[in-house]
Amino acid sequence: MLIAAIFGRCHAWGYYSPRICNVPVSGLYACMPAATPPNPPPPTAACCNSLVNANYGCLCSDRVSSELRSHGVDPNLAMLIPGKCGLPNPGHS
């Protein structure tokens, strides 16, 4: 719901690249398979590229994290994605 609500508001305001926690919504969607159990594939280049400027503190916030969980995202798998992309560990940023 949060993703859809933000996309709807941003699109209505004329923005064509809505973001959540400094990640394009399209990037979050690109990362979802890599964070969805039971056998997630490796993150795609689109996913990795979208996380370069991510605000991990924001993504890990209770509000955003619970919304992502409601879409089937496993937070533990999601935390592994930056490392799989060769990006800094979110726990250290």
TrEMBL record:
Every Bifunctional inhibitor/plant lipid transfer protein/seed storage helical domain range: 21-90
Transmembrane spans: none
GO biological process, one term: systemic acquired resistance
Top-level division of the source organism's lineage: Eukaryota
GO function terms (MF aspect): fatty acid binding
One Pfam family here: LTP_2
Name this polypeptide is given: Bifunctional inhibitor/plant lipid transfer protein/seed storage helical domain-containing protein
Organism: Trapa incisa
